[in-house]
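Handoff note, outgoing to incoming analyst
You'll be picking up this chain. Sequence as last confirmed:
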Amino acid sequence: MPDFSAMDALRFFDRRPRELELYQAFADKVLAACPDTHIRVLKSQITLENRHGFAFVSLPRRKVSEPSVVVSFGLSYRIPSPRIWMAVEPYPNRWTHHLLLSDETQLDAELLGWITEAAAFAAAK
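Most recent structure output, in case you need it:
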């Protein structure tokens, strides 16, 4: 079956070229670090998954000062970092972290470490 995720991503980011660039840079880094990742484009978010979703990209619901995407990921603990915009614990020992990605320089080893850990956490469920 052909992979339509690239075309679907173009539609998801319609008229938002900067956000599309941020997403593509993020997805490229995640796919390089976690090659077993599949991408699913839904109406309100893009899901990166192995056995389960481990990272999610969406558009900010509120107006932000610069083009950005929201990156969300789940871990078994809360990350105490100023980079995390919000963290919630929807279930015991399952923390969902959200951060605002507005520049490719934010796609650093720290963020990719969290995403790789989230992929392992999702695969172990």
